Protein: PhnA protein
Organism: Acetobacter persici
Amino acid sequence: MDSNVKCPKCSSAYAYQDGALWICPECGHEWSQQDQAADADGADGVAEIRDANGNVLADGDTVTVIKDLKVKGSSLVVKGGTKVKGIRLTDGGDGHDIACKIPGIGAMNLKSEFVKKS
């Protein structure tokens, strides 16, 4: 067993091999050696941000909110189906990786898992 294999998601040193897959007992992430090799070849320091359907997002894209989202600290709600134009991708440490302006609400950050590319 390769003792220097770490989980690519949480960097845990306790990953173990089960058949063709590697499994992390701490976060539950599973990956294969081919996936890890492909990630190492394609890693240029910029992470791909994907929408709820798995499409890669880019700056300036138009997205649609897929479910009603409550705005924290306010009584406002971003309704599902709201189109958001001209998004900016950010590296939010709290999971909010899209900065945008929502019509009728203003500037806010969204998680990519709650939008789909239009």
